[in-house]
Fold these 2 entries.
Entry 1:
Amino acid sequence: MLEVEQLRKSYAELIAVESVSFAAQPGEIFGLLGPNGAGKTTTIGCICGLLTPSAGHVKVMGHDVVREGPAARANLGVVPQEIALYEDLSANENLAYWGGAQRMRNPKLRERIQEVLELTGLQDRAREPVKQFSGGMKRRLNFACSILHSPKVLLLDEPTVGVDPQSRVRLLDLVRAEARAGTCVLYTTHYMEEAEALCDRLAIMDHGKVIAAGTLPELRSMLAERDLLRLTGVFAPEAARTAMQRIDSVEILQGDESLLLLSLVGASQKLPAIFAVLAASGAEVRGTTLTQPSLESLFIKLTGKELRE
Amino acid sequence: MRFLWASVRKDLDRVRRDPFSLATSLGIPLVLVTLVTLVFSGGQAAPQGRLLVADEDGTVLSQLLTGAFTREPLSKMFVMETAGREEGRRRMDRGDASALLIIPKGFQDAVFQNQPAQLQLVTNPSQSILPNIAEETISIMVEGGFYLQRLAAIPLRSIATGQPPSDATIAQVSIAFNQIGRSLAKYVNPPLIKLDLNVVAEKRENQNVAGVFMPAMLFMGLLFVANSYVLDIWKEHSWGTLRRLATTPVSLGAALGGRLISLALILCGVALVGVGGMRWFANVDVASVPLATIWLILSGMTFYLFLVAIALHASNQRAANVIGNLIVFPLALLGGSFFPFEMMPDWMARIGRFTPNGWAITVFKAFVAGSAHTKDLLIGAGWMAAVGSLLFLITVRRMRKFL
């Protein structure tokens, strides 16, 4: 359905994406997870034809996006990061235009406009200029314009950035509904909880490369049930490292003067011992956060940094 | 085709929803042409000014001198008012008149006695045409007075005694003028200088200031509309709609084509109103409304492609705006789309006619005058199609990189 093979995109000496490979199937929600600048948007750009890959292949429903661009794009629906709508036009007019861009014709187009307006809950506001819509409504219309032609593959590039929680839930429901209807969904985000809640399979990207891929249970197993302990305060990094060696199976993921990130098994039982050795090393602990195994802890384990950085 | 129609409809809907941008582009030239027409004519063919005369001499000669301004054609250009020297000065300081002519006391006596005489003409520096006309007229009359003084000083002196002339004096002066006339006859009859008059164009009875300015203003409007349409592509870029369009099966060329068609429809309305306005409101005798209208539309579309090809090379929307203005305003000023070529110095008009809009406006005037026909339209359209196609390809290529 969607195949990305050894994708590479470079700009002069800057390599934006390197050796990215994955495949997504019909009815599956495949997540691309990574911090800003990880290469997610570049990957999406290569898939939807906005960027020409420097190397590798991308196929949509068997059509190569470079050699058979229009045929590949006819099967694609793209929900861009920005609200790419004409705000001076109504929802109806926007949908009619984007339907035309997908070569849809009346009366099929008119029927489909009514369907997506109902699906996104915008049927009562269909004739109003989009500039009068709330942010959440604009996001829903942005989504509606992309599914109007019932694409086989739907790409969503961080569609919930800046969206209120209520609209986010509604938007995620719409994505799930599309997947249930058999659409192959590629979803990029830097929100861990969103990826965990939505995606069937995930690829974690950093510095233009896929550093881990698999289903959520597969990825979690990479952590071997290890907890993530985040300590803030005042630390002497070298002294803290030496102190941690006295505790069993503690791995220091990140350590500097103000932050210590530890990966360990049975963190709650080991907390008193950790505090004791740190106090002995001259450290002053001011804050503690204990996180159960999650994508975030996996990301930190793989990259040595937090996703929000 | 389906998308082309959707694209045209979208652009027209957007103009309908926000007509202010288009109205502004057209409003500026409209206001300018109205103001210029009011300032220069008030509906008449020639400009009119005020000539103040401080006649301190009050003699036959001083009245003869100013009499020229009371007869046509000068009487149509000047309203003559008498004023005292000081009052006249004050009114000139206020910019109340085009010129002030001061005829000092003893002017006639000095002329008739072959003595030096001095007239004073104060002109308004904020005006150019009318003060020059006044100066030239008075210079000619002073020159005439000089030759009269040289040829007929003695008989004139006998008249200028201040007393009513006797019959003998009148007979003596008549004989003297008769002799002067006969001595001049060999130069005057037949005249040594022959005026060779060639009529190069049919005199246009209804030609007026609006008629001179309206083609210029129409083309200024075209340039402004094209430029505002160009900036719209930058807006689409910032909204992300162009990027989104590039992810659909349709080509960017189709999008640009749709935009051109919508622009053509808008220009069609503008051109019909403009050319119709020239013909029925400004009383300009437009020889062919259809040819002039089609020419305006084609010109506007080519201007758009020219401007959009350049604007897409700008680094951002603000830069595109600045570059657009840097091109449009000099082109408008030099290319006869602000001041008509008729008002420009010859050297400037010659250069201006080589600018794209200068060429287009010259051909447009030929369609208005009836000296260009369908064949000329086809040739011109062919040129514009060739240049336009090249610009179209450049623009589409640039749009891909622009995303």
Entry 2:
Amino acid sequence: MKVAYIFATSRHTVSYVLGKMILPQLEEGRHGVTVVGMFFFEDNNYVLMKGNPIGDRLHKVAKKTGILLMGCDQCCYEREIADKLFDGVPIGCFPDLYKALSGNMPDQVITL
Amino acid sequence: MTAACREPCCSVAPRFTVADLFERGFRRMREAPLAIEGGTIADADGNAARFSIEVDDGKLADARFRASACTTLIAYCEAISELLPGFGVDVVAQLTANELVAALPGVPALKQDRAVLAIAAFRAALRAAIQREHIEIPSSSWPGLSRPSTP
């Protein structure tokens, strides 16, 4: 099964759910499903900034396994980080996300 | 008499960032179009923009627009609408997409093509104004804006 994650809430979504659950499992190759994409809203976008330690690990796994990483463009502009993301990580809105995923559509989209 | 508030909440000038331009642009898009409207210009991604302008005595008096719900595109269109009024048509006609990109830092390279669309839409409105108002612009200005010769 292929899934895409949308990180929409800003509690421990990135530092805990992503950083301590999903990401280690992806690194160990035992997440259980194929992750095709991750989209980040609001403060969750800081994980995509160059130098972020969780983001650095995520970026490496994404490059290795072909996971699409994308930040919400409005959220990134608001935080003035749109041009400070890891190389190759785009920003966009829903049309950009759907277009980017169209060649590898997920079976499930999970909002966290 | 009450002194004007000089705290940051009241005295800060509008910021020229993508996020702030987007907010102001979103409000501008709700305003009724001005008298001279250009055609709708679209790109391959389905984004579109359309400018309306007011010209007074050969100068751009005001500019408004409608654009697709793309943050970057709206910010570029708003930048045009804020920067150019007050300048002559021959001057504003020379603004290029590269100059617009340079004026608004912080936009990733993948999104900078929205400036091309914004400029094309603005020029469409300028072209309409030149035809309607019979404005003569110097040949040094962008040639595509010249008023078509009468057959």
